[in-house]
């Protein structure tokens, strides 16, 4: 049996002010996975990541990284983890090259090897031309990429990314995902938290949704998306007909003179919809999902969980 | 971590600290040199010439070891408290906390950096003192040990201060309200033998008195306290404060939530 990349067992955290951030989290991430850890703000994601990276003390429970307990053998477990935190946390007066080399030094990696790795990862993340400038001069996107380069200095087996693309423009975001996908394909297990659910849907194979300190869903991305029974499409049309076609299992609404919203069961085919619209003299010029599929499920799961809790 | 990887990690912190000290040399090295030059001019030359001798030395010669030790103490303390608190404030202390590095390596790295600044500043002040008076080091080994131990005690104290500090004001409080009064009353400018009872006995509870006198014994060969007692006091503080600092790091006080 393969040792999981991460095995979390009944992890609990109650802060000094009485806030119960984690109420018994258990989950398993397999080696090589690209795993999404999603949840609304304040759900407990960052607390969980904080405990895994030893920045937060757990109240009870344990976690093992490739079979190594973060409590009983912290030092060995930390050697296996790379962390990209949510907040910028490097010395802004240091240079990116020094930040990376120093980080490697904290892991006991000598300067010669650390310098080679720093050059490699700063180049891969397109930061090499800024390597010897003060870090405070970098743009927001560059600072985020620098934190990824720094997290790679110990060449971790498990890379944890806590909202790494927050506030980053689309081009840089894509280049970051390209890099992270590359290292995942090369064998590094990746755990990602993000509020951009489209990213999670595209990148991750498995998913856990956490809300109010509890896991409310933990499954494969495919299985989760398969549970979505209704989808809503937005159609751009040549003109909205005076009498809207009637189709069983489909609700059509005119949003304006050239836009129709179609809410339909996933079992319903699109051909009959197009045929019905065509019969009414409507030409569909383009169509898109009203919301990201994962987003719809996410909102539903979180709201459902809260209703049950109430 | 193995001994060799611990050594690399330790070297990384020490190197980073020394780079920091040298990068901001106008804040770390020049101000104490200027302050001490003023002390030498005012207390040593202008006022000191009217005081006469103390323990057989001119007043200028007598206060040089005290002022050098004062520079070492305040700069060691100031270096570690501002550097470690700065790392906490800027959150880059997390770079070390998420690494496999043991706590004692973090502590030793910061203490070594602070002692280094204390020693550099002490050497600078000593060189400046030579422009004002002649000095011959009577006991070089005692001088060296008293510098290292004195700087270590206050580096550890500064580290504990930085761990508890929540804002920059918190790291200024101790130097202002504790360190400065203790230094001025610790025999830097006078021999405690000049004080009548109970003030002489009260002075003996001031740890800085032992550091100043150990260093003065090393340089001039005279001391107000037994030299063995001075070293025992310093060692007790080193062991005690190290234990406190390591316990704070283990519990994550002020560092881990």
Overall description:
The complex is a heterodimer of chains A (310) and B (257). With 310 residues, chain A is α/β, with parallel strands linked by helices. In chain A, the strands form three sheets. In chain A, strands 6-7-8-3-9-10 form a six-stranded mixed sheet, with helices on both faces. In chain A, strands 2-1-4-5 form a four-stranded antiparallel sheet. The radius of gyration of chain A is 23 Å and the shape is globular. Chain A has two domains: 6-226, P-loop containing nucleotide triphosphate hydrolases (Rossmann fold, 3-Layer(aba) Sandwich), CATH 3.40.50.300; 230-294, Alpha-Beta Plaits (2-Layer Sandwich), CATH 3.30.70. Chain A has ten helices and 14 strands. In chain A, helix 3 (96-106) crosses helix 4 (111-124) and helix 3 (96-106) packs parallel to helix 5 (140-151). Chain A has helices spanning 45-52, 74-79, 96-106, 111-124, 140-151, 170-185, 197-203, 221-226, 270-279, 293-309, and strands at 6-14, 20-29, 34-38, 60-65, 68-69, 81-84, 158-162, 189-193, 206-211, 214-220, 230-237, 250-256, 259-265, 284-289. Chain B starts with a helix and ends in a 6-residue tail after the last helix. The radius of gyration of chain B is 19 Å and the shape is globular. Chain B has a two-stranded antiparallel ribbon. Chain B has one domain (3-251). Chain B has helices at residues 3-23, 25-28, 30-51, 59-89, 94-97, 103-129, 140-164, 168-184, 199-203, 207-220, 227-251; strands spanning 53-54, 57-58. Chain B has 257 residues and is mostly helical. The chains are: A alpha/beta (310), B mainly alpha (257).
Keywords:
heterodimer, A: 310 residues, alpha/beta, Rossmann fold, Alpha-Beta Plaits, 2 domains, six-stranded mixed sheet, four-stranded antiparallel sheet, 35% helix, globular, B: 257 residues, mainly alpha, two-stranded antiparallel ribbon, 2% strand
